[in-house]
Amino acid sequence: VTTLPDTSPWKSVHAPRPLGLSPRQRDVLILLVMVALVFTVTSRMDLFERFARFSEAHDAWQLDELIWLPILFAVAGLIFAWRQSRALIRELMGRKEAEERVRAMALHDPLTGLANRRKLQEALSLAVPARKERSEVTVLLAIDLDRFKPINDSHGHGVGDRLLKEVADRLTAVAREGELVARMGGDEFALLLPVAESADAATRPARRIIQALEAPFRIDNIVCQIGASIGIACASEANFDPEALIQRADVALYRSKSEGRGQFRFFEEEMDGHIRRRALLEQQFSQALAQGAIRPHYQPLVELATGRLKGFEILARWTHAEEGVISPEVFIPIAEDTGLIGELSLKLLREACVEAAGWDPPLTLSVNVSPVQLRDSRLPERFMQVMTETGFDPRRLEVEITENTLVADFPGAKRILTALKSHGVQIALDDFGTGYSSLHHLRELPFDKLKIDRSFILSMEESEESRKIVGAIIGLGHSLGLTTLAEGIETAARARELVDLGCDMGQGYYYGRPAADADAFRDGGETSVQGAA
Ligand SMILES: [Mg+2]
How far is the CA of 393 from the centre of ligand 1 (A)? Predict the structure, then answer.
């Protein structure tokens, strides 16, 4: 009874039975048939009379006492049969219970007790028969927790598991009768409305779930602030594919997450292609990184007044086997989401340092550091290790961070940048003018360079305003003792104008697009990239 069937656990319940009888009924039937058979044979052959006559004829043998023997055997046999059938019934009940337990286990998540993916699929396939009106729809909400992973990482799985249980409780509280809450795995949940009046009916539970999970959780003495993103998919047709509906809700969820957390989105047809592509790239990303398909490209940084090459900004380029070159705008978010941004950055840095270590003159290398990387307190050590391994002088390294990076965790960013600075690394504030930085940041952090965002430089031609802003930023930079660099220079005229405004350095298509081969620009080192502006 205790051994669990290795195939589908409930199969045996529905296994066909001979003649449609239970084992007990079959046994009774066999008994009756045998009794009838014995009765027929004995009466046909007048066995009792023959025996009586024989017994009378041989009175001395006391044969009439023998008649008790079969009677005693029959009674004992009946008792035995009754006990056997009791045992059989018990065993059958036990087996049925075990089968039901296995079935329940197969359809429920052991941690939260919620339905699992399989149960949800079952419920989805039963959803259509439950719909009565033609306008009714089946709605599926895919729910994903925001900021769950950091809690799991920093407080351990024990806290993570208890948090998931509490999330399950809150979701169950939101669900109404007839609705099904399921755990799809990890920190993903789902809510099924088998019969809803319309797609709009899904916004009610979506709002309530977001609200319910936004409220802080308290586990022991740890206050956990999470949240939820939701994707919604609806099916109105009678023969919809449950698996496709789950996938559509996932696609909508994906979009909802990428557009900022704590929101819900309905599935739209056009999302499909876009999300599919991103999901595919996400799958391929780690392999591409391991196989060296993502390599550093070099864009020249030039001294404006002389046009002399001073260094390169390292930019990642992914050369995809089928799609060609993929833009960093596409794959950097993937690297950040998959947690591989740190690895990518160090790999590119190492490659570039190996290439640049022996250059004469010793040009600089500038690397972009993402907000995600600045959360890693060991970042300075990792960078210095690459410097040591490759023999690249840290004083030739420049780290570029954007203003928005600073907003997330200013003290953390300050610690890391100060540590890098103590090793001689230069710090540049990237894309200045587009983010949320304040003068406070400029004063508090050890910056060496201000990179003026390309949008200002590109609009200088038609906008007097932009020209004034650029002039003001250059003045501000100089007054704080910072080097200024203009991004996005595309013409000689623009370069001259920037020299007139007092800008120190420049970068842009006029001086060179990012290229895989730095030597194309270096050409012995002393040669300028473009004639002096
Ligand atoms: Mg940059």
Answer: 20
